[in-house]
Specification:
Blueprint lengths: L1 H12 L1 H4 L3 E8 L7 E4 L4 E9 L6 E8 L6 E6 L2 E10 L19 H16 L1
Length: 127
């Protein structure tokens, strides 16, 4: 019985199970990686990665939270005196816009693996 309550506690505390969603945020940049910080999204928001292009120059990116209705839109943005066409691509998971690379922040395990590791730790405690 106690094991059941502890497993329920693990489920409640896991961000993916509670609906709490963090995303990586970074301002517009022409760097290939945005160092980013974590930000908490609202209930009606998704994580996004924006990729912008302009003729004759390299691409720009930005990341953060955006209302679901803004996903997939292409909009003009001004960066360093140029107008870029920025397309917003959304994803719905916790930290799903973190991408790859060393500058993207802490390791986040999938929810299923978090639960399995928690269960194994609980079993070890009780044995």
């Amino acid at each position: 019985m106690v094991l059941g309550w502890l497993l329920l506690l693990v489920l409640v505390l896991c961000p993916g199970a509670t609906g709490i969603k963090d995303c990586v945020f970074c301002e517009l940049t022409d760097s290939t990686q945005c160092p980013g910080i974590y930000m908490r999204c609202g209930d009606d928001e998704d994580c996004f990665t924006g990729r912008g292009i302009a003729q004759g120059v390299g691409p720009i990116i930005n990341k953060g939270c955006v209302h679901s209705t803004s996903c997939g839109r292409e909009e003009p943005v001004s960066y360093m005196g140029l107008t870029y066409s920025l397309t917003t691509t959304c994803c719905a998971g916790h930290l799903c816009n973190r991408g790859t690379g060393p500058a993207t922040g802490a390791l986040s395990l999938p929810l299923g693996l978090q639960l399995l590791l928690g269960l194994l730790l609980l079993l070890r405690y009780w044995l």
